[in-house]
Amino acid sequence: MKTGTLILTVAAQMLVPLQILFSLFLLLRGHDEPGGGFIAGLVVAGAFALHQFVNGPEATRRLLRVDPRDCIGIGLLLGVGSAFPAWWQGEAFLTAQWWDVLGFKLSTPLIFDIGVYLVVLGSVLTAVITLTEVDKDEA
Amino acid sequence: MSPEVALPILIPLTAGALSMAFWRSRMMQRLIGVAGTAALLATSLWLFASVQEQGHVIMNAGGWAAPFGITLVADHLSAIMVLLTGIIGFAVAVYSLPTIGRGHETFGYYPLLHLLLAGVAGAFLTGDIFNLYVWFEVMLLASFALLILGGERAQMEGAIKYVTLNLLSSVIFLSAIGLLYGLVGTLNMADIARRVALVEDNTLIDIVAVMFMISFGIKAAAFPLFFWLPAAYHTPPVAVSALFAGLLTKVGVYALFRVFTLIFNQSVDFTHEILLWGAALTMLTGVLGAAAQFEFRRILSFHIVSQIGYMLMGLALFTPLALVGGVFYILHHIIVKTNLFLISGIVYRLKGTHDLKKLGGVYKAWPLLGVLFLIPALSLAGVPPLSGFFAKFVLIRASIEAGEITITVIALLVGLLTLYSMTKIWAEVFWKKAPDEDSAAKRVAPVSQRHLWLMILPIVGLAACTVFIGLNGQLLYDVAEASAAQLLDPQGYIDAVLGEQP
């Protein structure tokens, strides 16, 4: 299902990479400032949805490489998993843990945010792609 | 740091996430289903043991101290409820293996099952009133999806009533939390309890109390807003209705027990009087509704309603003995009710119908099943020496001691009518000659021996629990007594959560 609109095709070529980059920016910025996993997930889902409207669901599946449903599963695991490292330190579950890796600050809230990011991406895309495919089958 | 308070929530969440990650493999999902619920059962035993030892087990999630963060609190009542969640969850997961179809499994039956268990355990363990609301919503979400999985017409019809009324209840709950927060400025239940005593205007507190009562009353399927339950519970697969029957309404009852002992205990004459009448009418309408039904699971559904009345009666009388009776009743009821639903599933598998008029001759063909039915059925009706007898005995004795003759008479009458209902099922399903042997037998696919054993195993386990409770009444009575003592001593809860204060 290609739309064939020249303007949309050209715009999408530029917008999709920008949106994906912007979503990563939002994701990493989110701990103390506006941003975070949920909003970043919506932005990246928007990027893939746009790609799909231009190039059709098969192309988007190829671009994504993994099934969106796998994103949901892995995201949920990361989200729940971020509760556990505190246990190892003998602190209450969900207590934020910070690690300094090569000058970067890594933390369990970041893992949680990445989890949310993947869940939002996965669930929005599952819905959008399924709807398009059903639509195509009926057309 | 006591990990056992949080693990009953985190384990089902992890198991649910894992089975989402393995959505391609039915085998893995089934494995995780059984292993996850077994782990839940194990941690709930751990929690139960450490509550016996310490009284209150507490964890401040994220390390944020009470009353600012979310506190998880387990006292005796919570620990009992979580233990029952573990037992029922495990039994239902095993029962699901042969009974849940491929279609349900690929559409996420197991992740939803885990999510539901996490919601239930979360509601039992949280010490924060807004967090309680969140767990209620988690539970509602999962239960709604489980209810419509399969998408048959009757399921949709039941689900609409179920969702509409439960959303109404959530709205009232949320408004009540808002009002309460406006009055006392905190969401931590222990802190609320401490500050409610300082509020001068008792009328406002009473209004909020009644709002909580209506909201939890709907969730618990108490009179007058109970009709969503019999409309919905007979439509999904049997494993799902068994899980709902055992756990969902009891979360509402638990919330009533928690809130009306800890927070709203300042005008008992007003609030608990309403509860008492609600309890009486719930018992009566439930049992009368059941008498008019001729569908196996519908009869059982109406009996859930009438049994909820007994539990509320224990809370409403508000004497130590009555609370013991109420807790004992919950304990006994969850196991018995789930078991009866599971048995209705086997009968359906063997005979292909839930309609009492078309059933018959089950005892002749499968005498073991008949015996397995009699244990929970007679227990439900309160025949000694099974678990239901002690539960009813304690409650009725408490009501006589409290001098409430009307409710005593109603409770006894309802017990008798329950026996009538159970005899009706026994006579129609097991005893009478099968009406039209060949027409019923033709429609049913033969059940493999292995599947049948997987279905019978949880039933035997739950029946063993019922007999165990009956034979070791004293042991369970002590547990119920300890939790009643804690419920009547809100100061102990407050001190445990907030620390001793001057």
UniProtKB/TrEMBL annotation, chain A:
NCBIfam families from the UniProt entry: PRK12509.1
Instruction: Name the domain of life this protein comes from.
Output: Bacteria
Q: Does the keyword Cell membrane apply?
A: yes
Which cell locations does it reside in? Cell membrane
The record's Gene Ontology cellular component field reads: plasma membrane
Annotated transmembrane regions: 7-28, 34-50, 71-90, 110-131
User: Where is it chiefly localized?
Assistant: membrane
State the family named in the UniProt similarity comment for this chain. Answer: Belongs to the CPA3 antiporters (TC 2.A.63) subunit B family.
Keywords assigned by UniProt, alphabetized? Cell membrane, Membrane, Transmembrane, Transmembrane helix
Q: Which residues form the Na+/H+ antiporter MnhB subunit-related protein domain?
A: 7-126
This protein is called what?
Answer: Multisubunit sodium/proton antiporter MrpB subunit
Pfam families in the record: MnhB
| Membrane topology according to the record | Multi-pass membrane protein
UniProtKB/TrEMBL annotation, chain B:
Q: Which InterPro entries match?
A: CPA3_Na-H_Antiporter_D, NADH_UbQ_OxRdtase, ND/Mrp_TM
Q: What is its main location?
A: membrane
Q: Return the similarity comment.
A: Belongs to the CPA3 antiporters (TC 2.A.63) subunit D family.
One cellular-component annotation, GO: plasma membrane
Name the residues that span the membrane. Answer: 6-23, 30-49, 69-95, 107-126, 132-150, 162-184, 204-229, 241-263, 275-296, 308-328, 334-350, 362-382, 402-423, 452-471
Q: Where in the cell is it found?
A: Cell membrane; Membrane
Q: What is the lineage of its organism?
A: Bacteria, Pseudomonadati, Pseudomonadota, Gammaproteobacteria, Oceanospirillales
One annotated GO molecular function is: NADH dehydrogenase (ubiquinone) activity
The membrane topology noted for this protein in its Swiss-Prot or TrEMBL record is: Multi-pass membrane protein
Which stretches make up the NADH:quinone oxidoreductase/Mrp antiporter transmembrane domain? Answer: 128-417
Name the record gives this protein: Multisubunit sodium/proton antiporter MrpD subunit
Task: Return the Pfam families for the record.
Answer: Proton_antipo_M
Keywords for the protein's UniProt record, in alphabetical order = Cell membrane, Membrane, Transmembrane, Transmembrane helix
Instruction: Give the species this sequence originates from.
Output: Kushneria indalinina DSM 14324
Q: Which PANTHER family match?
A: NA(+)_H(+) ANTIPORTER SUBUNIT D1, NADH DEHYDROGENASE
Query: GO terms for biological process?
Result: ATP synthesis coupled electron transport
